[in-house]
Amino acid sequence: MSASTDTPARPQRALPPLMRLSDAAAERLRALYATGEHGRLLRVSVKTKGCSGLSYDLSWADAPGPGDETVTDNGVTVLVDRKAALFLVGTVMDYEVRPLSAGFVFRNPNEKGRCGCGESFHV
């Protein structure tokens, strides 16, 4: 005798976006794409660096490579290194202007901690 164990398929949960761009980050990237980096794309990756182990790395690319994921948000496209995707799921890239500095910052829900200077993080 065999019992049928047909179970209904579980509904799939929607995955969070790989990465999102804040309005400020999108505005800054639009300005960069329109001027000195015209025709290029920003690539976001994660490198082994710093006292906490990982660091965000930004570079310019002429075109998506075979190891890139393309993310379009707020009308702007960035590339994400596929090897970094696991560390970046759900991250929001922002652009902050402070009295003595300005730059892209990352609000990453996967971060478990940062080093004292804020240059590196761990998950």
SSE layout and pairing:
Elements (H helix, E strand, L loop, with lengths): L18 E3 L1 H12 L6 E8 L5 E8 L6 E6 L2 E6 L3 H4 L2 E7 L4 E6 L5 E2 L6 E2 L1
Parallel strand pairs: 1-6, 2-5
Antiparallel strand pairs: 2-3, 4-5, 6-7, 8-9
Protein name: Iron-sulfur cluster assembly accessory protein
InterPro entries: ATAP, ATAP_core_dom, Fe-S_cluster_asmbl/transfer, FeS_cluster_insertion_CS, HesB-like_dom_sf
Family: Belongs to the HesB/IscA family.
Using brief descriptors, characterize the structure shown:
123 residues, mainly beta, Hypothetical Protein Aq_1857, Chain: A, 4-stranded mixed beta sheet, 3-stranded mixed beta sheet, 39% strand
Assembly annotation = single chain
Task: From the 3D structure, determine the CATH topology.
Answer: Hypothetical Protein Aq_1857, Chain: A
Fraction of residues in H or I helices:
10-25%
Count up the domains.
Answer: 1
SS-based class: mainly beta
Strand content: 35-45%
